[in-house]
Structure formats: structure tokens, C-alpha cells
Amino acid sequence: MIKWCCFLASLILTTASFSQSYSIDSIPKRGSYLYYGQPAFEDNSFLLEEAINQEKGVMQYVSNFYFDNLRGGNFLYSFNHEIPLGGERHQLSYNLFYYFQNSSTSEPRGGGFGDINVSYRYKLSGKKAWIMVVPNFTVIIPTGKNGYGYGGLGGQFNLLMTKRISRKIVTHYNIGYTFISQADLYVSRLSSAPIVGIEKDLQYKNVGASVIWYPTRKFNVLMEYVSNFLKDLETDGTIKNRNQLTLNPGFRFAIDLNNVQIVPGMSTPFIFTNGSFDKVGVFFYLSIEPQYLPFSKAKSR
Description:
The chain is mostly beta strands.
């Protein structure tokens, strides 16, 4: 009897110790992101945001090159710097833009810097939850001149969701709203700089989804869908609705060099305006993620 009591006491102590070391919160839920194991690498989608914040000690620098027409149209370069604030729950980032406009019958040839976006992301639910949810709040600072920015202070809210379907398939979803105060309509002249014609408040909405497929550990194939419900200022002061839908097939792959991960990628956006095909462009992506803190956990991406 004494032996059985000792065995039972030992079992209780072992169980209690196990429950303290491995709490229920540390176990990934069935169907969660980590339920299927950690992918070989993670990265941003091209046109969408993923509900995955940066890890402590790891920053990310992203450069995007977008040509809106394969026959030599306009192009956009954007730079994004993502900074974790003490850990994965809080993240700060900023975006810089540079536009180049080819000459046309109504616009002069030239380029300029656009508005600056400063964003804060908060992780509501992480990789052990059934779905990952991250709200993103952005302030749009009107630094763009001569028509290369909105011309007014703005704000944007995006709800980012990531749901893993299987070991090799991950899906992402975005829902957003943008408000611009006193946006400018520029009157362009080929012989001089554009001048402001009309100022009005504008509101935009956006929805999007993407599917990421991992055929191999360090190579991804992706398909993105983005729909922007835009408002255009007309010369008579009215506001015209415009829907721009983009289908964006592409790929990306990871290169690991000691404490730095490099992810190049490429896609071909097919753009539809108000239900009709508009144009096809080309998109180049480059992500560089250096690990700054040697004691932080390296990304096993």
C-alpha cells in the first residue's frame, strides 16, 4: 500500500511539473499555423500584408519595383523598413515611395517622391491560434509634391489575417479603409509644374486575399487578389468611383547567409479597371532581413 501511495504521489508531482512546464497555452491549437509545423521561411506577400510581425532582434528591409506596363510605362519604387518593438506583439514601420511618370499628352515626363507612411501593428493572435489577426494603423504624411502624393494628411486601417490550411498552403486576407483630408487635384501643364485645382476629402476601401504554396522548403508560388474601391476627383469638383482589381501570380525564394536572409521575388500583375482589362505590369521584390541581436532566436524560415 505504501508503495502505491509513493507511486501515486510521484505521478501527481510529475504531472504537476509537466503542466507547469507545458501549459495549455503553449500547445498550438488544432488547425493553427504551428499545428502543421514551422515553414522553412516566411516573408511578406507582394501586394498584401501578412499577419506575421518581426521577431525580436530581426529587422526587415523591403524594396519593391513596379512597372505598370510591360511596354515601358510608369514605374514605382517603394522602400519599407519593419522594426519590432521589444518582441513580436508590437511593430513599427515606415514606407517611402518614388514615382516616375513617362511623358504623355496630358502629363510631363518626370519623377518625384511620394507621401511617407508610418505604421503600427499589434498582434492580437499569433501562430498558436486558429487564425492569426493583426490590426495595422497607418498615418499618411503628405510629403509628396507636384501630384506625386495625395496632398493632404491621411489615415489608414487594415485588418490583416493569416490562416494556414495545410503544411504547404498558407492564405492571407486584408480588409482596409483609407481617409485623406483635403486631397488635391492637380491641373497639369506640359510647360510648367502642376498646380492645385481642387481640394476634397476622399475615402478608399480595399479587400484582398492571397494563397502561398510551398512546393519546396525555400521556394514559394503565390497568387494574390486585390480590389481597390477608389474615388477620383474630377475637374468639375465631382467625385467618380473607380474599381481597380489586380490578379498577381508570382514566386519568391529564400537565400540564407549566416545571420542574414535574402528573399527575391517576381510577379506579373494583371490589372482590371471597372471590370475591363487595363494592362499587365511586372513587379520585382527584394527582402533583406539581418539579425541584429546575437542572443535572439534566428528565423528558421
